[in-house]
Amino acid sequence: MNTPKPTLKQRFILYLEKKLPAWKARNFPRTPVENPFHLSDLCAKSNAEKSKDYLSALRWAMENEDVLNIALTGAYGSGKSSILRAFKEKYEDYNYLPISLASFRDGIEEQYEKDGVTHYRIKKPNETERVEQHRLVELSILQQIFYRETDELLPESRFKRIKKFEMYKHWKKPLFLMLWGICLYYVSNRAFREQFYSWKSMELWVEALLFIISAAFFLYGTFRLLMEGMKVLASAKFSKINLTGGQIEMSNDISNSILNKHLDEILYFFQVQPYNVVILEDLDRFNDPEIFTKLRELNLLLNNSAQVGRRIVFIYAVRDDIFRENNRTKFFDFILPVLPAINHSNSINVLTDSLENAGLKDLLQKKFLYDISLYISDMRILKNIFNEFMLYRKQLTGSSFDPNELMGMIVYKNIYPQDFAALHVQEGIVYSVMSEKAELTGKISKDFSERLVKAKEELALLQSTIANGINELRMLYVQHFVIKTGAKVTMINVNGNVPLSAMSDDENFKAFQKSSRIGYNYLATYGGETTGSGISFAELEKIVDPNVNYEKRAQLITDSKANSEKNLQNEISELSRKIQFISTRPFKMLLAENKSAIEHLNEKFSKEKLLVYLLRGGYLNELYEHYMSYFYPKSLTDSDMVFLRAVRNQEGLPHNYQLTNIEELLHRLEPEDFILEELLNFTLVEYLFKHKSSYPKFIKILNAQLSNVSETSVNFLKAYFPVTTHFDYLIRVLYLNWQGMWAYISRESDIPEEMTDKIMASIIKTATFEEMEAINEELLFIRHIMWKPDFLTYIDENSLTQKAREVIEYFGITFGELDDDQEGSSLFEVVYKGNHYKMNEHMISLMARKKGSLHIDPNNLNTANFTTVVASKAEDLISYLKSDINRYLLLVGLELPDNTKESEDTVVYWLGENILMDQKLKIIELQEVQLSEFEKVEQDLWKPILNANKIHPTWKNVLTYFETVSQIDEDLLAFLDHEDNYKPLSEDKLENKAFVIALIKSRGSEAAFDELILSIEEPVDEEPFFASVAEDRINKLIWQDVIAFSQYNFNEIKNNHRDLIPALVEKNIDKYFEDTSLYQLRITDYLALMESGISSQDKGKLAEEVPYASIQQSTPLAAHVINHFASSPYVSRSYEVIEALFAQDVLQEQKVILFEKHVQDFDTSENAVLLAHIGDKFGEIIDHSKTPFIPQNPVNRSILEKLQHLGIIRIFPENRNHYQVFH
């Protein structure tokens, strides 16, 4: 079939479609292309700001005429190309010729074996290969020089290239040849010219002009053709000229040194082109300084060439280590070291910036990025890693993948590209490591097994050591019991008759501890006998060690080794778990949990630190295929596949992660997989529980997994309990497989109380008594029931009343707390009648209020618990408490902080029971009630009762105690010193003379003494205690009339407490005056009495008793006596007494008054003496030569009248308020 030819219009349109894109590209700027993945090219970037210091240094070198060879030195990726690019952009006044050898391979790689491991290295070239390599490098340099420019710019060059024939460029040459041929024909053919002239009828000058033009063009054309021919001959090389055969062959030989052979071409190139800066990059790939030698030589030739005639600078971008020692300073005129723009420490910044720009700032783990950046120090590799990550991530969208694992795979691909390629065909380092996993787990498992056996042996040894110590401690208490009985004990009555040798067994010793009256069998004269000791274990504890009880001593034994035992148990548990899970552990966990695992892998892998890190972190794992191909969903949904991958990688998803096709998912799993925690999923477990008969192997391992007490399993159960529809089955699975299930639930978990109660009800419902005993580890299950306040009604609501009653009776449960509304349950009566409740404040209060026949005030239970219970008439409760009063007191009676107001009857009852002395003492201490009489309790308790001030303060009780001890001991003295006691006692009558004497001699407080002596009825007499009693106390006794006024007591006080005589006389002044001759007083005694509070009358009587000699010896006493004489009625007194008083320095007025009373009793001479003693003007009265003036007053007038009457004076007329005496 013939295809029709396109029309002219169609051909024109096709031509435009072909030409327009190229024309548009040349004449219009390109429209920016969208970059949705934020990709980065790997080219050098120009950044003049960051490179300004380098640019300044490079600029200086360029302007230095002596510098011809400049080296930029730095490691790969240090930014040398970026600096050069920035330099070219900033300094456009230079003409740059860039040359790069980046396309050359570094060398030929070869394999070699070492220690059985295959290694790779760059093969060292032999001489032939080295020469060939140099030739190719020089050829590449030459090609980059000449192929940079077009033929038109290098017309004299012998290097020709294939060129595209373009009509618009080549139409001139054919036209020129055609015109040259026409001119040749026209000039050389005269006949043609004449014919042409005649045809056109030209004039002669026109013919001449046309001939001249044709001849000139012909000559010009001939010259041009000859010039082109000479160019061809100049650029051609001939290997052979055969003149006879007419052959000329062009040379194909290329010398080994390309640059030397074509030096003329190079000189020509720089002659015709303006380049003055040659930039050479990547020459250091070949590690051969000889190339630089040739280029330095070339540079020297160019700069010395007159043909070139200008300065040309070569700039080399090379590694620091390309030259050894000082060689590099010989090759280069200026070296500019470049600090790497990126290295291990800052590559993280570039990577995180790229991710942030792409909107993926938080997609990858920060630690992972920091870690992998330590292995990347090349900017191009870093950019490529990012580019590939973005593209792979897009390609893998729709299938589940971990971005961190994907990044790990990309890093591996870029750092180990050959191994990555080998991984596709199941070869290479990584594949070999993956295939060695089974062997690795076997070795690790063997190590764990050996350590497990050793740990178990150490634990058994440690436990036997602890057991021996506990047994020895228990036997110590048994031995003290035997000693306490004083009998030949053969058996002890606990759990039946138990031989002494078996008493250290757990059950026997626990029963021994609980016994309040331990019974025993002993050998008697006529056989064995059984009796009760009345000894409690608590008493034995006091005997063995008063400060530390048995439990604490046992704890001290176990604590000393508890940490070691716990550590061993933890180690055994951990090793067992590791052995169980080792085969399912991914490499990440194998390496993390077993530091020595890496040693079991092949040497080549272990030396590759990046691979080790990726494998340790799980970023390179067994699921690597998922990151190397697409996922095609079939029967599994994408979410199912996500779950399966998470399981294989052992990275858990949320427990409530939704699964779709569970049956198909189970086909992809093995029973052994269910030891993995990652398979704990609500939907999956619900499906298996529902179809447990179809998956027995799965169920068996799953049940073990649910019961293994791992953190993941426990967290799963906490979340699964509220949502499962197979609750009872789940709970039964747990308590049958998890021995410490309830211990964990009740003590260590944060499971809500409602769920805990639901689990409890499920256990009661489904478990047998034997199973409950296993569940009831450390009595925690029964304890939960005991302390559940609403247990009775909760059981009723769940229709478990009968089973719960059996449980209560089987285990002997005693409830510690029940709510008031539990009375409505049918089980409440069972609890009350069977004493299934604890002796504690709450339960006693509940039973007293609910079961007592009399109404009680609940508040009284806090302050007088037992008394209030007795008052409630709850007989079963009262009997229950009295049946074990010791326990009641220990738990309630002595523990309630406010229970201090029990009645006297209650306290007497308690003190009369067979309880520990410590408890009795505590009762006495805590209870506020005071006993009315000592006789109500044992005499052994009198002293503590007295010390606690818990006896009524009556002299009867005091004397009862006093008669027992025959003295006022420290305890009685302390009792009497108490204000609450001595105050009431002071109001009672004390008639016991022995006690009074003891009280006087006692050393109690003075405050108490002052009060107590008020109660003494009869004064004491003729008791020789004065010498031993303080003067102050004797003084108090005097004033309290306790000391009788007798000559014996007077003399005892005078001999022992002389200063108290005035007090004794003052207190007994009437008795003193009865017979003053029996009591001799001293001047000081008279003075004290005169100054005391006795009446003036008594003082006057006392003044009459003062001896003449005492008056003469004491002026103060004389003053007191004369005062009383002057103020008292007239009494006849002897002249000697009056004269003695007047002789003392006493008040003149009193002398005058007393003289007036006695002036008539004495004669003139005696009165003259007395007047002289009065002194002043009174002494002149008896002097007849004087007429003294005496002041006017009634006393003086009476004296003068009496003197006048006696004839001693004649007259005494008044004269100016005075009496003038005349004889």
UniProtKB/TrEMBL annotation:
Alphabetized UniProt keyword annotations: Coiled coil, Membrane, Transmembrane, Transmembrane helix
Protein name: YobI-like P-loop NTPase domain-containing protein
Tagged with keyword RNA-binding: no
All copies of domain YobI-like P-loop NTPase, residue ranges: 54-431
Coiled coil segments of this chain: 445-472
Pfam families cross-referenced by the UniProt entry: YobI-ATPase
Organism of derivation: Pedobacter metabolipauper
Ranges that cross the membrane: 170-188, 208-227
